Backbone:
């Protein structure tokens, strides 16, 4: 009789673990796709606008230098907790724009996610 209780307890434990694992995978998938949707939405919101933050550099904990584009002109501004100050205007020739910086970060996350997904899929096939 005690042996039967142990088997039932192990089965229930395995079922609970499997349920939690499936829920975890569902939450992970929902998070991934929600992040993609929000990212696309924010990208569309800023599309064809006159203001764009090109690059940000942290100087201290709450002070930043930002390179911003307003129309066809570029400016460097200092952004603090309570103030924003214009540092200077920069000509477009002085700026090195690297369009691959953001795509490299996105591709790296995509690779990590795909490797994790493949490992989980392989475990499920066993």
Residues:
């Amino acid at each position: 009789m005690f042996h039967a209780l142990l088997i039932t307890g192990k089965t229930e434990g395995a079922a609970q673990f499997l349920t939690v694992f499936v829920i975890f995978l569902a939450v992970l998938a929902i998070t991934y796709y929600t992040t993609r949707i929000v990212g696309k939405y924010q990208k569309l919101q800023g599309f064809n606008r006159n203001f764009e933050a090109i690059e940000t550099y942290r100087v201290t904990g709450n002070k930043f230098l930002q390179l911003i584009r307003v129309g066809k002109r570029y400016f460097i501004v200092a952004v603090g907790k309570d103030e924003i100050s214009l540092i200077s205007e920069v000509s477009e020739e002085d700026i090195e724009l690297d369009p691959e910086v953001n795509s490299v970060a996105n591709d790296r996350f995509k690779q990590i996610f795909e490797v994790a997904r493949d490992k989980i899929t392989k475990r499920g096939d066993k």
The CA atoms of residues 51 and 82 lie 20 Å apart. Residues 2-96 form one domain. Residues 1-5 have pLDDT under 50 and may be disordered. The first strand starts at residue 51 and ends at 60.
